[in-house]
Design goal:
The protein contains 7 helices and 11 strands. By secondary structure, the chain is α/β, with parallel strands linked by helices. Strands 7-8-9-4-10-11 form a 6-stranded mixed β-sheet, sandwiched between helices. A 5-stranded mixed β-sheet has the order 1-3-2-5-6. The longest helix is centred in the last third of the chain and has 16 residues, at about 190-205.
Length: about 250
């Protein structure tokens, strides 16, 4: 299968930055079934915002797990900051994941633990002291519109779905990672919360953080990406695990 290629689009004459994330001929198969993800080459530079769209079961979550190093590709390789994830020893791979912020499907929160504990867990796992972890958790929660003083001690399970999603986003950004991988980001959010979260993420992209988010959408969804996605975001569409490239305006002829 011919690999579909998605490259960063740079201003004319700008030097090409080293990719934060690069996939080379990546496929993922489970047994003898058709590939969950077909051949894909992808390069994502600093400050880029990629939205992976497609219907349920098209391979969006598989792609993010491969990017996060939670699964190994059946073919090809995944590189983060130039490092091949599959070639790293387990301890080095775990250390590399600390530079990632990952939002799994369903948020993946500890429902009986407090809001603050859930968010602070990310900096604690990364080796920060208890108070520093709590400081980062409070700052991240405030960014996404959760009041750490009023809601920080509540069990996450008591929050409505939209607020739980905001807590999960806060956990993903608490360490200000170089790469954010956000599965099914906006589905649980109402319009106001989606606007706030995406405004925060756009600011992170301005600061050079690379972002990949997924969205369930019909295979025929039209480009460009509609609101609330920021104007800087570009789309990669998947259908049955195969990338479907939208038309790209190549600009005026030379």
């Amino acid at each position: 299968m011919e690999a579909a290629r998605i490259d960063p689009r740079l201003p004319e004459g700008a030097p090409a930055p080293a990719p934060v994330l690069q996939l080379r001929g990546v496929e993922r198969r489970y047994g003898a079934f058709r590939p969950a993800l077909g051949a894909l080459d992808l390069a994502l530079g600093r400050g880029e915002f990629l939205v992976v769209q497609g219907p349920g079961g098209c391979g969006k979550s598989v792609l993010l797990r491969l990017m996060a190093g939670l699964e190994r590709p059946s073919a090809g390789s995944v590189h983060i900051a130039g490092e091949d994830l599959a070639a790293l020893r387990p301890r080095a791979r775990a250390h590399m994941r600390r530079s990632l912020g990952y939002l799994p499907p369903g948020a993946g929160l500890l429902l009986q633990r407090s809001v603050l504990h859930n968010v602070a867990l990310a900096p604690w796992v990364a080796g920060n002291e208890r108070e520093e972890g709590l400081r980062r958790a409070r700052a991240a929660l405030a960014l996404v519109g959760i009041d750490p003083d009023r809601q920080g001690d509540l069990p996450v399970g008591q929050l409505p779905a939209g607020e739980r999603q905001c807590v999960a986003v806060a956990r993903a950004i608490a360490n200000r990672p170089a790469l954010l991988l956000l599965d099914d980001l906006i589905a649980p959010l109402d319009t106001a919360r989606a606007d706030r979260v995406l405004n925060v993420l756009s600011q992170f992209a301005d600061a050079g953080i690379a972002i990949v988010a997924t969205q369930r959408a019909d295979a025929g969804a039209a480009a460009p990406l509609p609101a609330p996605w920021p104007a800087r975001a570009r789309a990669l569409r998947l259908s049955d695990g195969v990338p479907v490239l939208p038309a790209v305006d190549s600009g005026p002829a030379a």
